[in-house]
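Please check this record.
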Amino acid sequence: MPSPYLLAGIGAFVVLVTYGLPLLLAEYFPWRSLWKQRYGRPTPTTKSYAGRTALITGANGAFGSRAARMFATRDIGTLVLADVRNCSPLKSEIEKELKEAGKPVPKILVWQIDMMTFDGCRLVEQKARKELKTLDHVLLAAGILAFNRRESPEGWEHSIQVNFLSTALISLLLLPLLKSSPSNPNPPCLTFVTSFGLYPAAPTMGVPKTGSYLKKMSNNKDGLAQGHQYGRSKGLLLYFARELAARVTAAGKNVTINSADPGSSWTPLTNAGKEMLIPRLLTNFSARDPQFGAAVLVNGASAGKEGHGQIMQDYDTADYPPFMLRKSGQNAQKLVWKETREEFEAKAPEVKAAYALLGDN
């Protein structure tokens, strides 16, 4: 007869596998969603963007450049390519491809911006105010992935600076300028880019008992902590995006704010992880051609009211990560909003117009 200890051990193992493992995976490794993305083949759902204006940050990146081409081949009226690197070669390529295909060539503006500084973000707002009459679609696709810690001129770890703070600041500075063209049946849409990478970073995103939450996220060291910085920066951005969407709703503004998850791809951004076992395994698990991720981003930035406050993923919406749904996550979100506002108002006072628009005085 089997030992009662053996039976108890088997029972405990069954319970762990049946209940504990799914909970653990849902918290830190949403494999079902990743596997679905691996085989997803989304394409842009909007047939024509005639007469509209789209702005893309990170336009030279793997996703941003493909998204730019998708807008361009679907009759976009004005296309803004913004990046730290000069987008003039990309502009020339798009124009050449369209002419060869016998398609209309849009007005393409090239804005070179440095998102390591808040002044670079303010330049986006200044150019948009001066050069754009309408602004239908904003895709904030700029981002960096770095395994060695550096600080921005603003004093923040550079992943936190570019992926979170500068992206958030641009969104607020552009908020008062969002306006649909007459040909656009939907409200203007602003889309942030999110990532699976925030899931494994979740255990490192707890709020400190004292001191600044953002400073805690920024004041890391090289090694394991820096390895999580991309995910942590995306976690902070998703907190911010969800809070911004909620405040836009509360203020009664006819604007769509959402996030889009392009899934995993091997790109110049992620290639830095190819020589590292864990990043390589995680990316390979769900990697697909970047064109499909770009299509997700274009669809996200083209969403109507139904996409407001959502995470767009292929043709569906995804749930927010479990740690963000708990009371502690809701508290962290409010703290992110508060500390971010303090930083922005101190260094980019123009942002006060956006807070006033939201009734956040």
